[in-house]
Specification:
This protein is an alpha/beta fold. The protein folds into two domains: 134 residues, Aspartate Aminotransferase, domain 1, CATH 3.90.1150.10; 273 residues, 3-Layer(aba) Sandwich (Aspartate Aminotransferase, domain 2). The strands form three sheets. It has a seven-stranded mixed sheet with strand order 4-10-9-8-7-5-6, sandwiched between helices. Strands 1-2-3-13 form a four-stranded mixed sheet. Helix 5 packs across helix 12 and helix 15 packs parallel to helix 17. Bound molecules: 4'-deoxy-4'-aminopyridoxal-5'-phosphate. The site of 4'-deoxy-4'-aminopyridoxal-5'-phosphate (PMP) has 14 residues, from helix 5. This is Aspartate aminotransferase family protein.
Amino acid sequence: MNESRPASMSSFWMPFTNNRDFKAAPRLLVSAEGMYYKDVDGNQILDGTAGLWCVPCGHAQPRIVAAVREMIGQLDFAPTFQMGHPAAFDLAEQLMEYTNHRFGHVFYTNSGSESVDTALKMALAYHRARGEGSRTRLIGRERGYHGVGFGGISVGGIGGNRKPYGPLLPGVDHLPHTHNLAKNAFTRGEPEYGTELADELERIVALHDASTIAAVIVEPVAGSTGVLIPPKGYLKRLRELCSKHGILLIFDEVITGFGRLTTPFAFDYFDVEPDMVTCAKGLTNGVVPMGAVFTKKHIHDAFMEAPPGIELFHGYTYSGHPLACAASIATLQTFKEQNILENAASLRQYWEDAAHSLKGLPHVIDIRTLGLIAGIELQPIEGKPGARAYAAFKKAFADGVLIRTTGDIIALSPPLVLEKKHIDELFGKLATILKNLD
Ligand code: PMP
C-alpha cells in the first residue's frame, strides 16, 4: 500500500474541491479504522463526518472487508439485465425486511445522484403507465441537494450547482426551504416554526393543476445545505397534500438512510411513508459505490399491469454489482450484530448536549441537532461567505478532526459506532478552534 505523497497531483481534477487551494496544501488520507483516519504524515484524524456521511458502521469493519474479498474471488462481475446473481436477490429481500416491508421493491444504482434521477424517471413513467401522462411536473425545494445529475440539479435548490448548467429540466417548481434563524435558532430536535410552509404545495397545485404534477422530492433532513431540520409536522403535512392530489412523495434519504437519526430511515423517525425512497452511502457502509430506490408495491405493479414487454427502460451496467451487494449484505449484518442503531440512540442526548455546549462561543449564531447530526452555523465574514467555516475546517483537519462545511455551516455526522470519548474529543477540539477563529 502506498502511504507516501504522490509524485504529482496535477492530473486529478478533484470533485467539489477548491483545486488550486488544495494542491498548495493537500490533505491526504492513507488508511482508516474504526473512528479514525490516518493521514500521510501518520496523524490520527477523528472522523466527525463518517467520510461523506457514508460510513455509519465505522471504518474497516471486518465482516464487510471479508465479504468483499470473498465475492471478488468468486464473481467479479455479473450483469443484471435479463439475468442476475443470488446476492442481488438476497440483498433486495433483506432491504425490504430492514424497512419492515413498508416497500415492495428495490432498484439498484451506483450513487445517490443516480438514485435520484432513477426515482424521478420512475415517477414520470409510473403516471404514464397508468394513463396519466399529463403528470410531468416535478417539485423540489429551495436549498435541496439531490446530487449532480441533470434531474437532481433541476429539482435541487442550490444556485451554485444549477446556474452554470441551465436551462435544466422544464416544468420544475420549488417549495420554499424551512430554515428560519430568526424564529428557530438553537432548537434541539424539530423546530416549532414553519410547518405551514408545506402548504405552499397547494399554491403550486393551484397554479398548474394537480393533474400536471408527478412528484415532490425532499430530503427529510437537508444535509448538504447545512443540516436543515423539518419543522414539527411538516413532512406529515406534505404527505397529506401529496395523497390528496395523487402526487408521489419521494424522500431522498441518501444521508438520512441507515441510521443517521438512530432509526433505520428518517421515514421511521418521522413516521411518514413516502412512495419512494432514494438511498446510497450507508447502504454499503461506503465501501463499494452503490445506491438504491425503494418503491411502494403500487409503483412496481403499475409497470407489471401495463402491456407486456420490458417495463422500465432504465438501468446501469453496474446495477446490483456483486461486490456492492456483498458489501451491503455484510453492512446489514453488522448493523444487527453490533447493535449500531441502539448505540446511536443511547448517545443521542449526550451528542445533543455536547453540540449545544458550543452556544455562546464566538461567531456561533445557531446550533441544531437531530439524531447523530449537528449543524453549527457561524456568522459569515462580511463579503466573504463561507470563508470563516472553511478556515475552521482547515484548522480542524490540522488539529486531527474531520468536519464538513457548507457555506458558513459546520455539519457533523460521525460514524454511529462512536463512544462518549469521541464526542468529547470532537466538540472539545471544535470549541478550541472556534475560540481562536478570526
Ligand atoms: N441526495 C442527497 C440528499 C445527498 O446528500 C447526496 C450526496 N451528499 C446525493 C443525493 C448525491 O449522492 P452521490 O454523491 O452519491 O451521487
